[in-house]
Each structure stands twice: as C-alpha cells, then as structure tokens.
Amino acid sequence: MNILIADDDPMQRELLAGFLRKQGHEVHAAADGTEALEIFRRAPIQLALLDHRMPGMTGDQVLERIKALNPLVRAILITAFGAVDMAVRVMKLGADDFLEKPVDLVQLLQKIELLEQRVAVTADVIEVTETVANATLPIEIIGTSPAMQETLSLVRRVADSPWSVLIHGETGTGKELIARLIHLLGPTPDAPFVEVNCAAIPENLFESELFGHEKGAFTGAERTHRGCFERAASGTLFLDEVGELPPALQSKLLRALQEKRITRVGSEREIAVSTRVLAATNRDLRALCETGQFREDLYFRLRVLDVALPPLRQRREDIPSLIEHFMTRYARRPTRLAPETLDRLVRYRYPGNVRELEHIIQRSLTLARGSVLLPADLPEEVRTDLSADQGLLQERLDALERDMLLAALEQTDWIQTHAAEQLGISERVLRYKLGKYGIRRPET
Ligand SMILES: Nc1ncnc2c1ncn2[C@@H]1O[C@H](COP(=O)(O)OP(=O)(O)OP(=O)(O)O)[C@@H](O)[C@H]1O
Ligand SMILES: [Mg+2]
C-alpha cells in the first residue's frame, strides 16, 4: 500500500517507516502536518498513519484535511496511551482505527491488513457501481452495508472467470439481480442473457426447452426450436431454481456442461456450445445431495464458485436506502415516511427479504391516505412483528400503545376528542400520552 507517516518524533517515524518498507509497502514520511499535506497532494496515498500530537497541525486536523481531499483515504491515528475519548473523537472524524503509544508493530500490521482488504473491497465496488451506471439496460442495486459490499466485491471478482457460479440465498434476496450483474460485469455483457426457471417448466418439455428440438421431433413440434443453451451461446445461461430440476434432467444437464455439446431433441447432430452458466437456488443443495435428490457431481459442476446472498435482516443498514429506492419507483405523488414508520420497517425481520420490502412499500403507498406513510399504513405483520427485538414487556407494550394512538388519530383526522373517545380514555390522558411518545400531527 501507499502509506503516509506523519510524526514529529524522528525515531518513531524512522522505526515505523523502516518496518513498513520491509513489509513491502511504499512509505512516505513527514515531520509535521504541513509536510504531510504536501506529500498527500502529490502521492497516491491510500493509508495515513498520523501521530495525534504534533507541533502546528494536530493529527486530527491533518485527517480532516486529507479526508476532504480524498474521502476514500484510510487513516490510523496514533494517540497517547489511555486517550480513549480522543480515540472516539477521531473515529468520528473518519479515522478507521487508532493505536496507542508505544505502537505495537504486530497490531499495526494486523490493522493494515484489515484496511488493505477494505481498500480492495471498495475498489471492486467502485468498479461495479461504474459498470452499473453505464449499463445499457437499467439495473439498480442498493447495497452499502458491509455484508453487501463484500458480496459485490466477490461478484466483481467471479464475473471475469468462465466458471459456473452458484448463487444461493433465501427467497427474495436478489439472486436474479446478482445473476444479471455477473453477466453485465463479465467479458460479454452485450451477448444474450437467457433465463430458465427450472421450477416452472413441465418435465416433459424441459429437454426441448434447454437443448431445442427438430421439426417433427414429437407431436406438436411444428418447427425447429433453438433451446436456451444455443440462444445463450457466447453469453450467459441462468438456471433459476436449479434445485427443482428433476433427476433425469440433472444427468442431461451435467453431460452438456461436461462435454460443452448439446443435441436437439430428435436430432443426431451435436452442437458445440460455449455458454457461461449461472445457477440460483434458495434450497440447501448440499443437503439435497445427501438425501439423493440432487446429483453431487452436478452440484460441484455448478458450484465452481459460489456467491451467498445475505438475508435482509443481516444487513439492516440497507433498509432505509431500499425504502427510498422503492418509494421513488412506486410513489405516484410525493410521499414521505414518518420516523416511527421507518423505525418499524428497520426492525421487521423480512422472511421474504428484499422482495417483501418492495411489496410492503408498494402496498402501503397505495393504501396511504395522506402524504406521510404512518405505521398504520403498514401491513399488520410489520406493525406487530417484534421478533427482531424481543425487548422488555414494557417496551413492547409502549410500541403497541403508540401504534394504537397513531391509528386512532389517523382515523379521526387528528381530532383529539374523537380519538380519545375511540380509545376509551379521557382527552387529558390522551394528551399526556401524546407528550410521552412525542407524537405530533405530521404537517401535510
Ligand atoms: N440490492 C438490491 N437493490 C435493489 N433492488 C433489489 C435488491 N435486491 C433485490 N432487489 C429487488 O427485489 C426483488 C427480488 O429480487 P430477485 O428476484 O433478484 O430475488 P430472488 O433471490 O431471485 O428471489 P426468489 O428466490 O424468490 O427467486 C426484485 O424486484 C429486485 O429488483
Ligand atoms: Mg429469483
């Protein structure tokens, strides 16, 4: 990595610089903040090791400046021993990590390795984002959570190879989207992407669907038909729900993959096909192999590389941007989310993952009366799902109470007398509760 060291203590500076050079890094050393900034402006620094206490500019001031010049730069602040609150402050300024003096070199190396990985992930993700932005067919992928950044970085790396990739993940996690992205990032983005849903094709038509048929091959085969393999030639064949493939077809598919040749139904002639194969499943194929429902040799063929998509509940950081994404797509008039609605949506556990979130937004936008989405507009299971956060009884009761208050106010057009009546409480108690939960009428 290209590393900048800023430290006013020449001994410490030389020690660190010498050590890191030996590890194969490109090191630039500066004796103060001004010199550090000068170097930063002309060298492609990826990581800055900044001593906090330097005459003139302090380490955190240098950090602020270099972050302004390049937000992607990584930084480790070196602080006096025991300066914990300092550490908290510099992390807020955008440092990735901090080390206490005297610097433990083994620890320093570990931290650098970790940051190196993050730098690589970021570089991959930037490449993905650029490709997506320049794609001819619109494709939009939200994923700033660490879990998705890792996934996108992996996707970027598997995309170049000719090997088959098995994409697995729960229903609605975005497997098809990722398959399209792999195709887009691959060597032949303009070649066809052909999708076959293995669960949707009747068994007796499958062979012809995959490999094609000759005219007259069977009753009803009135014309010659090119199968998916042929249509995807030099492009990508996406076998969706591959776990549902019947055993007889598993063997035929395996043969096609091994020999890179196919035969149309009713023909003797073999056709060479060079098709990249991607497969997706929400089932545990390993387990299906163990029970004999899926051929192990086919499993290994398909899973040369594999991409696991994390369920949405393991990347809640993405929920707000996904909501925004779907609101922009589906709102017919300007609509915004009440803070407590967002709160509910972020906590919900999403057994149906991103697709479920998409449907929830679509549905709530359709049913909402005002220009603000209230918790009452959300489906029942989202409003009452507390499994994500099992909380204390009081917390759960509070959440329920708050929901009931909001629903009553909504139904009575925020006329407090009516809402209190509907809830069977006095207006005074209603006002007290509104104050307690900070509920105010949203301005329209
Ligand atoms: N990261 C994401 N960013 C934006 N939209 C997404 C993302 N992931 C999924 N979606 C959207 O969610 C919906 C479901 O995604 P997709 O069909 O790819 O899931 P899947 O894993 O193939 O689901 P299934 O297992 O049910 O086939 C699609 O409308 C897709 O565009
Ligand atoms: Mg799918």
Automatic annotation (TrEMBL):
- Identify the domain of life: Bacteria
Looking up Pfam families in the UniProt record yields: AAA_lid_14 (PF25601), HTH_8 (PF02954), Response_reg (PF00072), Sigma54_activat (PF00158)
Query: What region holds the Sigma-54 factor interaction domain?
Result: 141-366
Which InterPro entries does its entry note?
AAA+_ATPase (IPR003593), AAA_lid_NorR (IPR058031), CheY-like_superfamily (IPR011006), Homeodomain-like_sf (IPR009057), HTH_Fis (IPR002197), P-loop_NTPase (IPR027417), Sig_transdc_resp-reg_receiver (IPR001789), Sigma_54_int (IPR002078)
Q: Which residues form the Response regulatory domain?
A: 2-116
Q: Cite the SMART domains for this sequence.
A: AAA, REC
Q: Which UniProt keywords apply?
A: ATP-binding, DNA-binding, Nucleotide-binding, Phosphoprotein, Transcription, Transcription regulation
Q: Which residues are recorded with the post-translational modification 4-aspartylphosphate?
A: 51
Q: Which terms under GO biological process does the entry name?
A: phosphorelay signal transduction system; regulation of DNA-templated transcription
Q: Which CDD domains match?
A: AAA, REC
Q: Tell me a Gene Ontology molecular-function term this record carries.
A: ATP binding
Q: What is this protein called?
A: Response regulator with CheY-like receiver, AAA-type ATPase, and DNA-binding domains
